[in-house]
Every structure is written in structure tokens, then in C-alpha cells.
Amino acid sequence: MEKIVEKHRRSLPHLQLEGQIISLTWRLAFTLPQKLLDLQEDLKQTLASISNRKDGDEARHYTEYARKLEEYDEYLGKFELPGISLCADAIADVLTTAFRFYDGSLYELHSYCVMPNHIHLLIRPLPDSLGGFHQISTSVQRLKTFTAKQMNKYIGRQGKVWQEDYFDRFIRNPADYHVVVKYILENPLKAGLTKHHEEWKHSYYQQGLI
Question: Residue 56's pLDDT is what?
Fold first, then answer.
């Protein structure tokens, strides 16, 4: 059985097991419209119910969570946020440089996509010097802290940049992996930002890692 690396809860429950590939999503800090608030609350309740289940049918319920997460993400991708876009070249460069900086030290970088108001990241946490694995929560915090400082400096503002928490979902098998990669890369297309995902310059996928 895979060992638990970390298990904790902020507004969302989080569970990381050794060797897992994990899909991460987090957004800018802003007030969501009611439709997205409802979807987000539904996501929280669904994820919380999965962590409390003992009926042996977690896979089916997790599939439902993944479906709801995609629905939430598609609405989020189409929501226009005035005043800041993560896809502005200078800001996107800050983000993608940070994603790549920790590749090979904290995690193995598989894929990412920068959207106007949120990001997608697909990584496999790497072993640390203590014989364990780097924790997702620490990696996310490092990325958020560094990029927030750089973004505020570029925009000329102060204050909160990112939402407090993040959504995560582990990859169950190779078929699930390729579904997630396809979803990440096609996110800009579904949001109407491009006609071909290959043309979106703020995304990345490293083939051959599984």
C-alpha cells in the first residue's frame, strides 16, 4: 500500500501518497460570481464526502469529483477578470519560469497551462533528502509566494494575489493521466482563447514521463 506523504485540511481536504502524479489548480484571489460559488461549494462537499467514505467505492465517487472539477474549471476559464491577466506575457513568464525552476528538485514537471485567472499544473513530487517526498502543500506555497511578489512588483500593487487554497486530484492510471493532460492542454480552446491548443504559448507538456 502506498504511504501517506501528507494529509491535511484547510478549506479543502488534501491527501498525498508516495509516487503519485497530481493535478493542481489554483486561481487568483477575487470574488466569484454566484454560479462559480455554487460550483465551488459543491466541489468542497463532494471532496469532503469522499475522504469520509468507507464503502469501498471511492473510485466511482472520485470520478464524480473529477467531473465536477472540470465543470467548475470550464466556467472559471470563461470568467473575465478586469485589471489583471495571468496571460500577459511578462506575468506568464514569471509563472512558467517558476514552474520550471523547481523541476528536478521539488517535483518532476509533466504539464502546465496558464489561463487568464487560474493555472493548471501536473507534477510528480520527488524524494527529499530525509528519505520521504516533497510535500505538495510546501511546493504550492513556494510557487505562490514567489510569483505573488513578482506579479505585485510588475503591476505596481500590494496585497493578496492568490486564493488561499488549491484543488488537487491524483492520477489513478495511465489512461487517466492522458485524459488529464488532454484536458489541461485544451483548456484555452474550451475557453475560446485559441482555435488550436498547439498555438497557446503559455502551456507545456513533457512527453515520455510515463
Answer: 55
